[in-house]
Amino acid sequence: MAEVRSLGYVIVSSGDLDAWQTFATDLLGLQVAERTADRLRLRNDDKIYRLEVVRGEAEGVTVLGWEVNGKAALEELALRLEDDGYIVTRETTQTARDRGVSELASFIDPDGMRIELFYGQMVDKSRFISPTGAVFLTGDGGLGHVFQLVNDEEPFRHLYLDVLGFKLSDFIDFGPIQGTFTHCNPRHHSFAFAPVPNAPKGVGHIMFEVDDIDIVGRAYDKVLKEKAAPLALSFGRHSNDQMLSFYVNSPSGFQIEYGTGGVLIDDETWMPRRYDVPGFWGHERQLPA
User: How many domains, in total, are found in the chain?
Assistant: First the structure.
């Protein structure tokens, strides 16, 4: 059965590309791959970009790009989505080339987010060089993970687990709200979601993982001492993926998790768990929320 393999790229709409460039390079350690008046592309590994910020009136994540194995897998997933009632667009060669991929299909998720499935992401011939010396953990694990706030969890459970082939990692109880964490490669989770009443729907945070706690610590110092970004959650360790991380508000309002030490999953031995707290320590919410 064809299935999604990793998070390939994320596209963000923003009215302030200058703020995004400073935030992404000086704090996160991403490298500018392309900058025009209306587009900022950022790298964190050998791919030509992983995060794209396009000029727009809206602020927030507008596209999630999920990588599949190849042409046959892309078509199988497209047909499966159509059988499930989704309208799937096989995008033009020009659109695929602009995205930096070989072939591309798109659809809209149950809450209106544009989802793109692709294969053959372009590799940059030049070496990735982080402005802060960060080494990001990507490879088979993809860009990182996203956490989406949704209206109703059941359509998303069906879409990601039954149609796109993700596997259940575990659950976290956020009081009366259940967070569902799913994986499509050894990374503990690539997509997580929770129905949060009275909160704006869409991607709540994107996670970038580095290989060195000192890189995380230096970034945290920039937040605390230099006010490099508004702190959203203090430094702490998560219960389920054991990530050591902190959260900041991005220039578009959603959060960025920046951390290290996340758990890897072996599907032959992994058993889904349930946790009653999101963190073992730390991760104290800062005000204003």
Answer: 2
Residue 261 resides in a domain: yes
140: DSSP letter:
G
Q: Which residues, including other chains, have CB under 8 Å from residue 51's CB and lie 6 or more apart?
A: 9, 10, 11, 12, 24, 30, 41, 42, 44, 143, 206
> Rounded to two decimals, what is the model's pTM?
0.96
Q: In angstroms, how far apart are the furthest CA atoms of the chain?
A: 53
Cβ pair 219, 27 in contact under 8 A: yes
Q: Per-residue pLDDT averaged across 150-155, rounded?
A: 96
Instruction: Decide if pLDDT at 198 tops 90.
Output: no
Looking at the fold, whether 143 and 115 belong to one and the same domain comes out as no
pLDDT above 60 (res 289): no
pLDDT at position 288, please? 67
Range of the domain at 50: 6-119
User: Are 16 and 72 contained in the same domain?
Assistant: yes
